């Protein structure tokens, strides 16, 4: 292994990665990912299916060989000190990472024993976690009989039998109902309060916004934007304004008016009475709606919402799309 | 289950009233517990994985069928089906057949090791085990330890039934025990072929298919059922180098008290070769599994 390019050791960082690459055949699943995650923070990977989120996490968790680049976890080299890395990390994968044939408590005892607890201590720790995760009543039930939310919680409980320094969570709330999702969020916040660094992947902007100190937006194996949720939103626009008019004929006029005041492109939706725009300044929205009224354009309803992941991607990837096209044109 | 849902309803009611309820305190306390036990050694982790395999048997006792029903079925079937035709009498044939069919049965049930492993891989738990800071082969060694118990169980049942049917080993108790030890060593080594395949094959079905394809010729084109001298010469050549034949010769010889040192060495040598190739191969695949 060539170590000449090793970077400086920054003790503030839990994860430090440079140019991570993973190839599956000719396809670059991860194509040069740089990453700096500070200790004790939550870092969110935001991206659609197949963007390379899971592959990156699996490399950092020592499950996949790295095809290029370097990474350090708490100062330990991912490849050369894999065993030291493993003693720092814990992974909750997308699929149940517990033994479904065993009961909740048996699963936790199993992990506890493997981590070096005595049989008695492993049982004590298991019961403590089950109580804390509201799973006390199903401790002796086989995990395959658990509901989706309970399964997710036992997954996370198994990951923190020995509280890890870094917890990797791969789409921790996908498919959960709102209450279960809130419970998982509470657990993540409690972990961070107690000093654990969390790296999570999500498809929901909302989730990244709620939990993550910093967010990386991933698409096609590359990080296309990185920053705090505030920074990302500022670059995308803080929300989306939807306006529906009473009369389709007044749409061109409304479009012109909104564009002037909001100073942003106005999208015409397939509904001939509807328009939408990404906005960053809510006061201007109020002003624009007022202007519509005074111009005599009747608005039947309007809404102001967070930009959806789709919109984030459209905005952030818009540029790289055109780059691709010029490349194609040149070749 | 009903208890649980009422519990979480309760939790929901207090959700908005702040974070200071008892549950959150329990959560905080559990998470704040940063106890780090010292790292266990490979023997301890292997035994823990063996405990896991035993628990699985507790929940699904049917999985012992291969170690209990198979041996009985095979022994009765082949003794009475072929006994008259091959040896003229079932009692005579049993003396020849039992050691052979014992090997065949045990060797066949080693296949289930690979299937268990393949099952683990398709589920997420395999990933968790691979991210634990433990001696990596222990997950396999633990499972194989329990399998060895299963093999012993199958062997006891078969030999017991054989004795009832009229099997009389001239080698006595010592001979039978030696035969069992040879067989268990071979079965343990052979299991690593199935763990290798278990890591390569993508589904349980394809794994079963390939395992059967390997198993059938190996067990049938051997000296399990018939004396190889009755076979055409080209087939005798294969039978002689077939490791199953070597084991059958060793086991048969031990049970009847006529085993030679050379025969024992051949069993151990073929076990060592299989283990030497497939254990490292398994571990390589295990480390680099995608």
Automatic annotation (TrEMBL), chain A:
SMART domains for this protein: AAA
Transmembrane segments: none
Listed Pfam families: ABC_tran
MF GO annotations: ATP binding; ATP hydrolysis activity
Domain of life, source organism: Bacteria
The keyword Ligase belongs to this UniProt entry's keyword annotation: no
Subcellular location: Cell membrane
Domain ABC transporter: 15-245
Gene Ontology cellular-component terms listed: plasma membrane
Keywords annotated in UniProt: ATP-binding, Cell membrane, Membrane, Nucleotide-binding, Translocase, Transport
GO biological process, one term: daunorubicin transport
Transport among keywords: yes
Family: Belongs to the ABC transporter superfamily. Drug exporter-1 (DrugE1) (TC 3.A.1.105) family.
PANTHER family: ABC TRANSPORTER ATP-BINDING PROTEIN, DOXORUBICIN RESISTANCE ATP-BINDING PROTEIN DRRA
UniProt protein name: Daunorubicin/doxorubicin resistance ABC transporter ATP-binding protein DrrA
Species of provenance: Salipaludibacillus neizhouensis
Lineage of source species: Bacteria, Bacillati, Bacillota, Bacilli, Bacillales
UniProtKB/TrEMBL annotation, chain B:
Entry keywords, A to Z: Cell membrane, Membrane, Transmembrane, Transmembrane helix, Transport
Principal subcellular localisation of the protein: membrane
Protein name: Transport permease protein
Domain of life: Bacteria
Compartmental location: Cell membrane; Membrane
UniProt-annotated stretches for the region Disordered: 1-23
Organism of origin: Salipaludibacillus neizhouensis
Recorded topology in the membrane: Multi-pass membrane protein
InterPro entries referenced in this protein's UniProt entry, alphabetically: ABC2_TM, ABC2_TM_bact-type, ABC_2_transport, Nod_factor_ABC_transporter
Pfam family, one: ABC2_membrane
Spans traversing the lipid bilayer: 64-87, 93-117, 138-167, 173-194, 206-226, 264-286
Annotated Polar residues bias: 1-11
Residues annotated as domain ABC transmembrane type-2: 62-289
Signal peptide: none
